[in-house]
Amino acid sequence: xxxxxxxxxxxxxxxxxxxxxxxxxxxxxxxxxxxxxxxxxxxxxxxxxxxxxxxxxxxxxxxxxxxxxxxxxxxxxxxxxxxxxxxxxxxxxxxxxxxxxxxxxxxxxxxxxxxxxxxxxxxxxxxxxxxxxxxxxxxxxxxxxxxxxxxxxxxxxxxxxxxxxxxxxxxxxxxxxxxxxxxxxxxxxxxxxxxxxxxxxxxxxxxxxxxxxxxxxxxxxxxxxxxxxxxxxxxxxxxxxxxxxxxxxxxxxxxxxxxxxxxxxxxxxxxxxxxxxxxxxxxxxxxxxxxxxxxxxxxxxxxxxxxxxxxxxxxxxxxxxxxxxxxxxxxxxxxxxxxxxxxxxxxxxxxxxxxxxxxxxxxxxxxxxxxxxxxxxxxxxxxxxxxxxxxxxxxxxxxxxxxxxxxxxxxxxxxxxxxxxxxxxxxxxxxxxxxxxxxxxxxxxxxxxxxxxxxxxxxxxxxxxxxxxxxxxxxxxxxxxxxxxxxxxxxxxxxx
Length: 496
Ligand SMILES: NC(=O)c1ccc[n+]([C@@H]2O[C@H](COP(=O)([O-])OP(=O)(O)OC[C@H]3O[C@@H](n4cnc5c(N)ncnc54)[C@H](O)[C@@H]3O)[C@@H](O)[C@H]2O)c1
What we know:
By secondary structure, this protein is α/β, with parallel strands linked by helices. The protein has 12 helices and 26 strands. About 45% of the residues are buried.
């Protein structure tokens, strides 16, 4: 079966042609998210996110042919010479009839954080429709279910039943990805707090909610769970999920101890179920581009990946547990998990860790600031500084983000350009500069959609998880080695 991102020029099966919107008939129409992964250089399609459909512009027509369970969508680009005349994009279960009405005005897309309705209303008053794409605002009050162009009435039995354990901040991103997927259906949300569980269930269209996740796990219509509760509780919930035969996508850090990680990996193997760790950065084209350029030797090897990040600790009432040392290991484990995982994904395994870790801020009991250096087997190195020690709403320092330095040059973190594309710049010898621009079709959807697709496909055995239990374990091992190094004042060799 062709993958979501695959393209082909094979002719569509004529006998099953079901709809041919073309020319002006489809201009400005919206189509479900899942058809948007057109080739990245395609100017006729405005890229979009999980939450908004693709927009078809003048010069482009779209033909769909039905070949259940795959919908084959053909984009015809009449006025762009460089493009191949047709491209086809596989889209399982695309419900054509569910297209939502859109303004008949010329449509462009921008990214931002304003209220969609207010923003679009203002743009319409200005004489053009300007579609808003929520950009990573996981706390948005946007009702995803109501705005998803999905056919709710036509239940597809092949859809994976999803249970969400934990209805806190991160659940918004996961549940938006579930809501946008045609391959899954949200069945139940469980949270200790009944009103949280009920609110999330309502907002994202779950059939039910629960205050005890065991109730969720007891449901036969739940095939897989997403675990988004504090890290110290991940192992217990995952083990219970495997015992009831569910697949698991668990948030990072995978668990607080390596023993818990091992238990989760063992339980998944024993149950024959998927265990995926939500290392969502592996699905971001932005970080992916940096990885690609580094691996292609653009700055030379071995190189030094520098990462600096800071902020204030999550403030009560939201996420007070993040600052409580009995429940959290602080930023090096909670946030550093993404960094440690991503550099491992790029360079391979870590050989040794050196760190200092202390409390700089005045909130809670965690060691909120850390400096870590990693030595990789490859000879590459990482310097990572993470702090939650700033006061609330402090603007932060000037050194934030990441870059990669090597014997042949320096790579700056990619930036979003005015034309909607992204670019990475590599400064080379003698003032030379190379610019690598690229599209980021997943920008704005928090990368969670790509991750969720990968999870669902892994459950069906068509892919493998991009971040496995072992990857989750290795990221946590680095954080634990950093704590040990800080405690002992020594460089810590891995494996622990
Ligand atoms: N991938 C990312 O970028 C990212 C971002 C933020 C958080 N996270 C991770 O997601 C997890 C949750 O973080 P959050 O920010 O959503 O926290 P949060 O405090 O906002 O939400 C946690 C929720 O879990 C609920 N809960 C706690 N114990 C429970 C239990 N036993 N059963 C059911 N519900 C329970 C709480 O009531 C709360 O609603 C953490 O592991 C965190 O590190 C990942």
